[in-house]
Write a structure and sequence with these properties.
- The chain is α+β, with helices and mostly antiparallel strands.
- The protein is built from 5 helices and 4 strands.
- It has a two-stranded antiparallel ribbon.
- The radius of gyration is 14 Å and the shape is globular.
């Protein structure tokens, strides 16, 4: 089975949000940098911040309930085995959750090594 690639599988997931998200600046070790969802290098550089943002709708804080299955949750980086991202500073896209299939594709692309 062919591995997912940015050009063929990921760029299209974000195409509708590219102009809106080009205004977003994210912190880096050397200052801030603009996130360009249509640019492979930018998406690869900010891959984890993007994952946190798209998983920002996974948990309903008001009701204290998960809205996705356990296998679709994003583990907290460096956290315990059962610790998952429950919120994001700026969930993406701002207009509401991406389809779960799109989130799963992005997560798979990251797991597979983020091919161009």
């Amino acid at each position: 089975m062919k591995k997912l690639s940015f050009k063929d599988d990921i760029k299209c997931l974000f195409s509708k949000y590219t102009a809106e998200m080009d205004k977003v600046k994210l912190a880096t070790e050397s200052g801030t940098q603009t996130l360009h969802l249509g640019n492979y290098e930018s998406v690869k550089f900010f891959y984890y911040q993007i994952q946190v943002a798209i998983h920002g709708y996974d948990y309903d804080r008001a009701n204290g309930k998960w809205l996705v299955k356990s296998e679709e949750r994003l583990p907290v980086r460096g956290g315990k085995y059962d610790e998952f991202i429950k919120a994001a500073p700026h969930p993406m896209p701002p207009s509401g959750k991406l389809p779960q299939e799109a989130i799963n594709i992005y997560d798979q692309w990251v797991r597979e090594g983020m091919l161009p």
